[in-house]
Specification:
Elements: E1 6-14, H1 19-31, E2 36-41, E3 44-47, E4 49-51, E5 54-56, E6 62-71, H2 75-88, E7 103-109, E8 114-115, E9 120-121, H3 130-139, E10 144-145, E11 149-150, H4 151-155, E12 163-165
Antiparallel strand pairs: 1-6, 1-7, 2-6, 3-6, 3-12, 4-5, 8-9, 10-11
Length: 169
């Protein structure tokens, strides 16, 4: 892919450690990536942990947000940078959808439809994830998820699965 500038939505999630600090630090680290500008950070939302077998009420709850960035990084390079940020925050990959200090996913990139062994854009489960759809609607109300339609319409029926998380300072 060429090095043209594109907007992208990146989902951030954490259910271990100081979730608020981790999300804030990760957003700053994304903003500091070369060739990348942070355009918007959504409000924080809390949600139950989702595992391959469904919702796990015994697992710590997730804190979630999304960021809108403008970047000249191609998708694979952006993915590698995000994996480095996850690793810097102690991310360990022992089980699929396991508890984690930080999870960063490229949800959407303007004009990019890509399927490879390690990356699919748009994210293949974005259309069913309240913790992606609701915060995405907050920062990009007119967004459209290719193949699924307006993000605001997708978010409406799942909005009740989340709680807005207010940071007390």
């Amino acid at each position: 892919m060429d090095a043209q500038r594109r907007n992208a939505i990146i989902a951030l999630g954490s259910n271990l450690g100081d979730r608020v600090a981790t999300i804030a630090q990760a957003a700053n680290e994304i903003a500091d990536l070369g060739g990348t500008v942070l355009l918007s950070l959504s409000p924080l939302y809390e949600s139950a942990a989702v595992k391959p077998d469904g919702v796990d009420l015994d697992a710590p709850e997730y804190l979630n947000a999304v960021v809108l960035v403008n970047t000249d990084l191609p998708p694979d390079a952006l993915l590698m940078e995000l994996a480095g940020i996850e690793q810097d925050h102690g991310r360990e990959r022992h089980e699929r959808w396991g508890d984690r200090t930080l999870d960063l996913d490229i949800v959407w990139m303007d004009g990019v439809e890509l399927t490879s062994d390690h990356l699919t854009i748009p994210h293949p489960r974005a259309h069913e994830r309240s913790f992606v759809l609701v915060p995405w609607t907050d920062i990009q109300p007119g967004a459209v998820l290719p193949g699924h339609g307006p993000v605001a319409e997708l978010a409406e029926p799942v909005r009740r699965e989340l709680r807005r998380f207010e940071v007390v300072v």
